[in-house]
């Protein structure tokens, strides 16, 4: 039996008379576009870990399930662009919340020490020390990026932290939005390679872990 086309799978998902048919159609779409969604996420150039990529992909697929019913089929290319935009947007959201997430990961559950029998409240000094480590790591990472590529860092800071649109940044410095987007992406890609090769780390999580360990030894 010939495989159903993507258009037919989308049609079956949208017009299924029973849940089983809808689930089968979605499962086939998921298998066909599993790697494509991951590719779209990686195109953001942020050195996400494999675990983060999986989480972002899961969020992207949830959006797909919500919006696929109303999707207007035009062509295979249009469908791929639609999927790409969903996955890329989820990657953007993950990147924009990076600094906040790092703070949360460093101080999560830091008010308590737990063992098999007892849970005791940590001292304020320990909490403050851990929070200080997070602040120092983020500050150091930003400093390294500024030293490596000041212009690219500033563009990414405006986009990811201050949540400025490329068009807004472009208007303020007299460039096109597309030029800003490309310069941001190139800077992030080059800095990621710098982290991997010159600083011997493969992700921002790994860099943060190494930085805090080295800081405690000094």
Secondary structure class reads: mainly alpha
Number of strands: 2
Q: What overall form do the CA principal axes indicate?
A: elongated
Helical residues, percent: over 70%
Distance between the termini: 66 Å
Structural account:
It is a single chain. The protein is mainly α. Strand 1 and strand 2 form a beta hairpin. The N and C termini lie far apart (66 Å). The protein is elongated and about 60 Å long. Helices cover 75% and strands 3% of the residues. Helix 1 packs across helix 2 and helix 5 runs antiparallel to helix 6. It contains ten helices and two strands; from the N terminus they run αααααββααααα. It has a two-stranded antiparallel sheet. The longest helix has 25 residues. It has two domains: 90 residues, Rna Polymerase Sigma Factor, Chain: A, CATH 1.10.1740; 114 residues, no CATH class.
In short:
The chain is an all-alpha fold and 218 residues long. 75% of the residues lie in helices and 3% in strands.
Tags for this model:
2 domains, elongated, two-stranded antiparallel sheet, Rna Polymerase Sigma Factor, Chain: A, 218 residues
Give the SSE layout:
Elements: H1 6-15, H2 19-42, H3 50-67, H4 76-96, H5 98-107, E1 112-114, E2 119-121, H6 124-148, H7 150-161, H8 166-173, H9 177-197, H10 204-217
Antiparallel strand pairs: 1-2
């Amino acid at each position: 039996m010939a495989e159903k086309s993507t258009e037919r799978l989308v049609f079956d998902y949208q017009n299924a008379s029973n849940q089983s048919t809808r689930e089968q159609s979605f499962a086939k779409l998921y298998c066909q576009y599993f790697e494509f969604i991951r590719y779209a996420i990686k195109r953001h150039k942020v050195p996400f870990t494999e675990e983060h990529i999986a989480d972002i992909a899961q969020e992207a697929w949830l959006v797909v399930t919500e919006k696929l019913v109303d999707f207007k089929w035009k062509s295979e290319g249009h469908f791929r662009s639609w999927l790409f935009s969903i996955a890329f947007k989820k990657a953007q959201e993950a990147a924009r919340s990076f600094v906040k997430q790092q703070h949360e990961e460093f101080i999560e559950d830091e008010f308590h020490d737990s063992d098999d029998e007892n849970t005791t409240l940590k001292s304020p000094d320990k909490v403050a020390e851990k929070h200080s480590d997070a602040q120092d790591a983020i500050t150091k990472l930003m400093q390294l990026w500024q030293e490596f590529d000041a212009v690219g860092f500033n563009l990414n800071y405006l986009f990811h932290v201050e949540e400025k649109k490329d068009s807004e940044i472009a208007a303020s410095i007299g460039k096109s939005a597309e030029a800003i987007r490309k310069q941001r992406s190139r800077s992030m890609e080059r800095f990621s390679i710098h982290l991997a090769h010159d600083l011997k780390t493969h992700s921002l999580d790994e860099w943060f872990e190494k930085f805090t360990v080295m800081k405690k030894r000094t």
